[in-house]
Specification:
Layout (H helix, E strand, L loop, with lengths): L5 H4 L3 H4 L4 H15 L6 E5 L7 H8 L2 E6 L2 H8 L8 E4 L12 E7 L8 H11 E11 L2 H4 L3 H4 L3 H7 L5 H11 L2 E11 L4 H9 L4 H4 L3 H17 L8 E10 L2 H10 L1
Parallel strand pairs: 1-2, 1-4, 2-3, 4-5
Antiparallel strand pairs: 5-7, 6-7
Helix pairs in contact: 6-10, 11-13
Length: about 260
């Protein structure tokens, strides 16, 4: 699988991927609702990047947050942010976490699994490090929803790349089921990612999604020209502002832990 180089992307990551206050508050609320009331929450943000979720989850929800990523450049950006010291940052390989068994109440991932050769191995690690009753939350753009977004319609080469690596909702739910999670459900949230069409066009020029970083420069330039023409003709098209983002959740149950213990 071709992979994005997040060491190189780190410098432009936040600028090219907006997360407005209203959007952040939406997701903080959704996460809090899915976690439910608990006295203390040990929260793992797996594939945390520059800490865009890790830090506000720590500061606004009061969770004890560990942010884990395999890019030292991304983690360095996270550490240097305001309130970055509210999070424990950890360099990790998601397929072989160094965390002990049953050490977290929540594992959260955002746009991570499509970067991995063996996503089921990662989901297996998630269930291992969760405590009984723990929750897994996976936030992502499923293939059925991103196939005709602007970053794919105007950059045709990106469709082929993502068809080979990006799961559908059904696939993610199956990974969760095979790993042993129960109470699996998915919500698809319509998110206003951009305030203007021009902003989305500008960020496409910064290769705002990982798939755009995998295209060669002529393909990017050709796509940007088609994108510009569309924005010029359709500046108020809401399609240019919105994205459908899925959140698939599952739970590690006490019964499953007992059954696993009986097999050992």
């Amino acid at each position: 699988m071709r992979k994005a180089d997040y060491g190189r992307i780190a410098d432009t990551y936040d600028a090219s991927r907006p997360l407005f206050e209203e959007v952040l508050e939406l997701w903080i609320t959704i996460i809090s609702e899915r976690v439910g009331p608990r006295q203390r929450v040990e929260f793992l943000d797996l594939g945390c990047g520059t800490g865009r979720f890790s830090i506000p989850i720590a500061t606004r929800l009061g969770y004890s947050v560990t942010g884990a990523d395999n890019s030292e450049e991304m983690l360095e950006k996270a550490r240097n942010k305001e309130d970055g010291d509210r999070v424990r940052w950890s360099m990790q390989d998601a397929t072989r976490l160094s965390c002990p068994n049953a050490s977290f109440d929540v594992v959260f991932m955002s746009h991570l699994l499509h970067h991995l050769d063996e996503p089921l191995d990662v989901v297996g690690e998630c269930i291992r490090v969760l405590r009984p009753g723990g929750v897994i939350l996976n936030r992502y753009g499923p293939m059925e929803d991103i196939r005709d977004d602007p970053e794919h319609r105007f950059f045709p080469g990106s469709v082929e790349i993502d068809e080979a690596r990006t799961p559908t909702v059904k696939q993610v739910e199956e990974w969760f089921r095979v790993a042993g999670f129960n109470d699996i459900s998915t919500d698809v949230i319509a998110q206003q990612t951009y305030r203007t069409a021009e902003e989305r066009l500008r960020n496409a020029g910064l290769r705002c999604t990982s798939v755009l970083t995998l295209l060669d420069q002529p393909a990017v330039e050709e796509g940007l020209e088609a994108f510009r023409r569309y924005v010029s003709d359709n500046p108020d098209d809401p399609w240019l502002l919105m994205d459908n983002i899925a959140l698939t959740a599952g739970r590690k149950t006490e019964k499953m832990v007992i059954e696993n213990a009986d097999r050992s």
